Amino acid sequence: MVMKLSFNTWPYASFPTWLPSYTLEETIKRLSKIGYEGIEIGAASPHAYPPTTTKERRIETKKILEHYGMEVAGMLPGLSGGPGHNVASPIPEERRHTIEHYKDVVELCAFWGGKTVLYIPGWQVFGTSLKQAWAWSVEALNEISKTAADYGVTLVIEPTSHDSNIVDRCDDAINMMEEVNKPNVKCMFDTFHALYRREVSTDYIYRMGKDLHHIHISDNDRLAPGQGKGDFVSVVNALKEIGYDGYLSMEIGFDRRDVEPDYVARQAYEYLKPLVDAVQGKK
Amino acid sequence: MVMKLSFNTWPYASFPTWLPSYTLEETIKRLSKIGYEGIEIGAASPHAYPPTTTKERRIETKKILEHYGMEVAGMLPGLSGGPGHNVASPIPEERRHTIEHYKDVVELCAFWGGKTVLYIPGWQVFGTSLKQAWAWSVEALNEISKTAADYGVTLVIEPTSHDSNIVDRCDDAINMMEEVNKPNVKCMFDTFHALYRREVSTDYIYRMGKDLHHIHISDNDRLAPGQGKGDFVSVVNALKEIGYDGYLSMEIGFDRRDVEPDYVARQAYEYLKPLVDAVQGKK
Amino acid sequence: MVMKLSFNTWPYASFPTWLPSYTLEETIKRLSKIGYEGIEIGAASPHAYPPTTTKERRIETKKILEHYGMEVAGMLPGLSGGPGHNVASPIPEERRHTIEHYKDVVELCAFWGGKTVLYIPGWQVFGTSLKQAWAWSVEALNEISKTAADYGVTLVIEPTSHDSNIVDRCDDAINMMEEVNKPNVKCMFDTFHALYRREVSTDYIYRMGKDLHHIHISDNDRLAPGQGKGDFVSVVNALKEIGYDGYLSMEIGFDRRDVEPDYVARQAYEYLKPLVDAVQGKK
Amino acid sequence: MVMKLSFNTWPYASFPTWLPSYTLEETIKRLSKIGYEGIEIGAASPHAYPPTTTKERRIETKKILEHYGMEVAGMLPGLSGGPGHNVASPIPEERRHTIEHYKDVVELCAFWGGKTVLYIPGWQVFGTSLKQAWAWSVEALNEISKTAADYGVTLVIEPTSHDSNIVDRCDDAINMMEEVNKPNVKCMFDTFHALYRREVSTDYIYRMGKDLHHIHISDNDRLAPGQGKGDFVSVVNALKEIGYDGYLSMEIGFDRRDVEPDYVARQAYEYLKPLVDAVQGKK
To answer: What is the mean pLDDT of chain D?
Structure first.
């Protein structure tokens, strides 16, 4: 079992604010310097929006990743078409557009050596029933998972209660995973969303168990772990208990402009690294 | 001189949050009921993202607009590719993608009878000098303005200091307008950004004068006018003084999820309508 | 490369509040006791307003500085004529008055062994275009820089977005420096203003690079570094990276009356001294 | 007995912030439009700093005042030499400089038809005893009052507890007035300072009685009257009771940048005008 630390690129991209903004090369260099072994890349400008990321740039980025020994811990869709990619939109063309975007992200992720793409199950537009929205989301996930299988990529369903309303709870993700029933469709969760729902993060870890394939670490209000009210000692211990083998990926500091990305990246690393090392018998 | 009230669709779209979310038809119906004469449409899903808005849907929307007697006060780009369309990106493909998006928005706007498209001058990515970013933005504006001219559309440059860093001040917009020097490139401003910069909104009105072609109305923190600390009596009086002929377009309540769109739309209308009627000799 | 710590006199002067208020002699004594190697002196009463600082007092102060081994890290203009010295005022006599004040400050600074005077580029009065305000500021800087050259003094342009509106951004300062194009006109920035603009302080350091000649250190809200949300570990590391050779000058605790100057001076020193020593290879 | 409303120029000057900033002509025009009969002018740039206000400008301003039928309700010193004019400075040259500034303000005030200059009794610098500071302030007031007598100007002593520490209380002002004992030295007070000290404004009115020659109106935190917690109905009634004959001068909205001057001026006028009219038997 190996737990590794990675950092999600939103604060450097940026999303959903426009600033600050760094190139992907600069971001990889900085995260490497701080100590991260992995990077979770949002498929967003100016980093990795597939339609504007040329073949040359993809190759160049691959070399840079190798140069810094930085692994792609995962990728996730960027906003597009306004609020972002809604697999549950009532507009058929929007669902189609979203599915194609996911396939592009899967392909790009695999090219850079990544094995995990996050699946955001979408949101219910007024006039659509929850059953219908769920069905469209499952349909999209089914289709995308086939492409993902071709590329050796696993899709991980993320409950995002703070922002959406289709997969809100731990069991919503598990139920969708079971309904799709594919070996390369698994679960993940984000401690931020758990805290937002006033839930206990370790409940997710024990409940998802061997199907927990990826995890987002964030304190409340997208603070670095240790800066808020979350209990990350328990999180790390629970992960060890279930034999978690994967990334702890920081998704922090991106929901507002007044963040110094290196600062939150360093805060998170310095707080979590000793905890993770301790349970893994290092130091 | 005629001043009319319009409402920007972000709280219904949504942007940058995902919820709440209404179709464009539903949005038009609701705004009409409240009393608005115009709608300012974000080119965003599920409303009007050009690549996923079919010919059929465009025609259908046009009929709905006519049915409700609702004018398109303007259109503005939706986020795409993550943080949104950056005309000043160091990535050439991203600039190209952005310019093409603007052209699509211009075309769609004209099709729906609109005559104004907002121009967001972009933001400076780390490693790009401000001079270079400015030059790329001017270059893009130049190209887009040609297409806009073909469609009888005016582009209005908006200073967005809260979110970006190229056109921050009143005079930045004026200087860019003068540098491009086209009859269909004018200025606008948003009272929210003026308040954010702790500036006086009427300073913008007097300074932009006859080149002020559009205006966003918002109190501080994206509150409806009259709910915060902004002085909208002075704004309406100053608009009358310079002979402003156009829309007062509400851009409010969209930066967070916990907003009831109809509520803020009604608050704004009920506060501003009497002020506007008074200076126009109605009432 | 040597980085040294200095302290700006505003909290002892005081400015812009009237209290607390200490003589310059008392201030030098206290800062020396805390450990500062440099003092940045505001040209303000009762410390160093040139028209009321007699020859005798200048000589006496010089002796006191020598007695305590305290270097003058820099000087900056004091408020005068109300809001302060506006090099961009539409009133010609005010611009003249301001320029003469700067020359007096340059002379006094050199007499006390200082080599740096801060240049505050002024603000735009209603009715003046930004272009005109900029031109007046450049004109003043040009004239002052000649006197400064005679005295071996370097002028450093400071972006002050929190308070003014001509030089707001990093690149505004760089552009003004390049336009004036004199060997004794360089750049500086204040981490407080960067934080106020929700920017990243190290972006300024990398961007200004070899032209960064002076730096103001302050956490958000003029708190001592380490008391707010600023990332000063990154700041010190970035300064080392670019080979910065000069003062880190605290400009803190002066914007309100309820401050104990020695307290904030000590807080800043105790927080920063170890960081600076560490990157300089001291223990 | 006639009570009239005037407005202090700080929010237009600006002081102590730099922005917003309007010329004196623009300020007179705006205050007149709102309805004010009087203007209280800070001797500050860009309005009326004596050393940079030429003879020509003085004559031009006089004509503008006459054109708008605007009376000068009073003048007060501008900041200078940093924190401002301290009549109680331990530095003899600073006291001399301050006294000369007051004489210049008296002369300018009289030239514009004003009959009142505010006297700010200064503050105690560390190392000076209160007795000594008081003595220097009385000495300065004595000298200035002679010049004021020559110009037919009355000096009014203002307790400024929020900002200074020599004349803090109602009776401090009365005692200083009695010690100087000149027919053209009277008292005033500011409801803001009374509220800051958690005192009752009408206590000042009854206590100062016939020696109350001028009054500053402000709610707590420099809000317009009626926007905070002050009781201005009682203030206006008490003024009528003592037969107050003079200006109610708004000194509001100037301690921070994010103020729209016209807005606070209008708020204050619309709130106080009916109260004043009512006690004066106008409807």
So the answer is: 95
**Between residues C152 and D15, the one the model is more confident about:** C152
Q: How far is C174 from chain B (nearest CA, A)?
A: 10
Domains annotated on chain B, with CATH: 3-279 (3.20.20.150)
Place of tokens 């119906």: B29
Nearest CA-CA distance, residue A145 and chain B, Å:
22
- The alpha-carbon radius of gyration of chain D (Å, integer) is 18
For residue C15, the distance in angstroms to the closest alpha carbon of chain A comes to: 27
Helix A92-111, helix A55-67: angle, nearest 10: 40
Of A20, A259, A266, the CB nearest to C203: A20
C193 to chain A: closest CA residue: A258
pLDDT at D85 over 90: no
Sorting pLDDT into bands at 50, 70 and 90, what band is D106?
Answer: very high
Q: pLDDT digit string (tens) for C139-183?
A: 999 999 999 999 999 999 999 999 999 999 999 999 999 999 999
Q: Nearest by CB to B18, from A57, A83, A97: name it.
A: A83
Of B199, B203, B234, the CB nearest to D263: B234
pLDDT tens-digit profile of B225-250?
A: 999 999 999 999 999 999 999 999 99
CA nearest to A88 within chain B: B46
- DSSP assignment of chain C equals --EEEEEESHHHHTSSS--S---HHHHHHHHHHHT-SEEEEEE-TTT--GGG--HHHHHHHHHHHHHHT-EEEEEEEPP-TTT---TT-S-HHHHHHHHHHHHHHHHHHHHTT--EEEE------TTS-HHHHHHHHHHHHHHHHHHHHHTT-EEEE---TTT-SSS-SHHHHHHHHHHH--TTEEEEEEHHHHHHTT--HHHHHHHHGGGEEEEEE--GGGPPTTSSS--HHHHHHHHHHTT--EEEEE--S-SSS---HHHHHHHHHHHHHHHHHHHTT--
Q: Tell if the CB–CB gap between B130 and C172 is shorter than 8 Å.
A: yes
Contact call for B199 and D19, based on CB within 8 A: yes
Tell me the pLDDT tens digit for each residue of B43-70. Answer: 988 999 999 999 999 999 999 999 999 9
What's residue A85's pLDDT?
81
Closest by Cβ to C123, choosing from D19, D22, D54: D19
Which residues are CB-neighbours of C144 under 8 A, at least 6 positions away?
C99, C102, C103, C106, C119, C155
Would you tell me how many other CB atoms lie within 10 Å of the CB of residue C55?
A: 8
Does the pTM exceed 0.90?
Answer: yes
Q: Do A258 and C233 touch (CB under 8 A)?
A: no
Q: What pLDDT, on the 0 to 100 scale, is given for residue A79?
A: 73
Q: Do B171 and C126 touch (CB under 8 A)?
A: no
Asked whether residue D283 carries a pLDDT value surpassing 80, the answer given is no
> Which ipTM was obtained for this model?
0.92
Which residues of C fall within a CB distance of 8 Å from D164?
18-19
In chain D, whose CA is at the least distance from the CA of B201? Answer: D260
pLDDT along chain A (283 residues), means of 10: 93 85 95 98 92 95 98 89 81 94 97 97 93 98 98 98 94 98 98 96 97 98 96 97 97 93 98 96 74
Pick from C16, C52, C91: which is nearest to D81 by CB?
C52
CB contact (8 A) between residue D93 and residue C257? no
